[in-house]
């Protein structure tokens, strides 16, 4: 293995130094060459699951331009490896890198269902939608092993409390039985992320996510079971998927999505370096073009942190994206409405009289 070799099955191609740590770990070329000669692995590419023990699990979202009030994340870090993911930066707070560590060191919160139930039984808590995966995907591969998301959904059903889910993994279908029960009382809304219709682009952009075909099938199955679906066509990356907007909107509309949302990519914190390194290794012929177009959406930089603007972008390229999205909405989503979730049943079941059979 040499420094320039592409790490298959991963998004990030390196571990960016953690800005909070005094020291950083670096693989030098002489060490890599030694490993090659000796036939040894310079680094283990396997995913490691690390137990985490938070005191609380429900987080209040204070950002004024994020359309959710509360979120919870059964896992920190995400094996999906989406190269653009804003959540990468949060891994630095745990003492890890936003690069490969984010994909290979997954923190597992086994106590999440118990902490959630404690929150819902709290005297001052009133029903407001709690979104699973406000940060990292609750249906990433770790869910196959630990089943924490399913256990949390059982708690939401027990208390008839509204819940939202954001995911790009067809693994959500294993919980179709619970989702159907929640949907009967308008207690569930699912947001499925579809970033591209190109499987080749998906493999390098989001290496361990469900295939595009499987993701579109997931939207259809959920819709056919009367589970409301909003498609997240996000992020839109100029020069990579910005030409797909109309086709993306039509594809999710044809499968039964009731609405869609989008963002213009921004590469905040360590992600700017990680993304730039990735694109120069995966798409070197268009790297400069893509990076310059992203900068054109954010006043000459890869990131804009201003609320209300940071995820919308500015300038001609961003305006073109917004115009295409408006056209797609008029063309494919006329008269469709994503329902408001029901908060009326929770007070009746707050003491846990109703059990999941």
Automatic annotation (TrEMBL):
Domain (Radical SAM core): give its ranges: 64-310
Claim: Metal-binding is one of the keywords in the record: yes
Q: Which InterPro entries match?
A: Elp3/MiaA/NifB-like_rSAM (IPR006638), MJ0683-like (IPR040086), rSAM (IPR007197), rSAM_sf (IPR058240)
Q: SUPFAM superfamilies annotated for this entry? A: Radical SAM enzymes
Q: Which PROSITE patterns match?
A: RADICAL_SAM (PS51918)
Q: Which GO terms describe its molecular function?
A: catalytic activity; iron-sulfur cluster binding; metal ion binding
Q: Name one Pfam family in it.
A: Radical_SAM
Q: What keywords were assigned to this record?
A: Iron, Iron-sulfur, Metal-binding
Q: Which Gene3D superfamilies match?
A: 3.80.30.30
Give the protein name, as stated in the record: PA0069 family radical SAM protein
Origin organism of this chain? Cerina litoralis
């Amino acid at each position: 293995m040499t420094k320039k070799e592409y790490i298959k099955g991963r998004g990030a191609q390196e571990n960016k130094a953690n800005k909070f740590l005094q020291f950083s770990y670096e693989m030098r070329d002489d060490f890599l060459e030694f490993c090659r000669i000796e036939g040894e692995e310079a680094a283990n590419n396997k995913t490691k699951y690390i137990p985490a023990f938070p005191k609380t699990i429900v987080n209040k979202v204070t950002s004024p331009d994020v359309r959710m009030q509360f979120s919870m994340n059964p896992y920190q870090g995400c094996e999906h490896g989406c190269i653009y993911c804003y959540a990468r930066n949060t891994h630095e707070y745990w003492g890890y890198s936003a690069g490969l560590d984010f994909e290979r060191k997954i923190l597992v919160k086994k106590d999440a269902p118990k902490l959630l139930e404690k929150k819902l039984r709290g005297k001052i808590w009133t029903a407001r939608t709690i979104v699973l995966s406000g940060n990292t995907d609750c249906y990433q591969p770790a869910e196959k092993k630990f089943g924490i998301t399913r256990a949390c959904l059982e708690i939401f059903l027990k208390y008839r409390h509204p819940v939202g889910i954001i995911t790009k993994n067809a693994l959500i279908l294993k919980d179709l039985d619970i989702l159907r029960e929640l949907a009967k009382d308008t207690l569930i809304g699912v947001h499925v992320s579809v970033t591209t219709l190109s499987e080749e682009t998906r493999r390098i952009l989001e290496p361990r996510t469900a295939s595009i075909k499987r993701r579109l099938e997931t939207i259809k199955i959920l819709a056919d079971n009367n589970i409301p679906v909003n498609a997240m066509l996000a992020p839109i990356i100029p020069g990579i998927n910005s030409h797909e907007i109309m086709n993306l909107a039509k594809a999710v509309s044809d499968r039964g999505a009731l609405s869609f949302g989008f963002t213009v990519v921004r590469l905040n914190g360590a992600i700017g370096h990680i993304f730039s390194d990735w694109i120069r290794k995966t798409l070197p012929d268009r790297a400069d073009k893509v990076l310059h177009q992203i900068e054109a959406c954010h006043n000459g930089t890869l990131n804009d942190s201003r609320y209300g603007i940071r995820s919308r972008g500015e300038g001609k390229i961003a305006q073109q994206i917004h115009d295409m999205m408006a056209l797609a909405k008029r063309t494919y989503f006329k008269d469709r409405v994503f329902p408001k979730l029901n908060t009326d049943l929770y007070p009746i079941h707050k003491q846990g009289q109703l059990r999941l059979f």
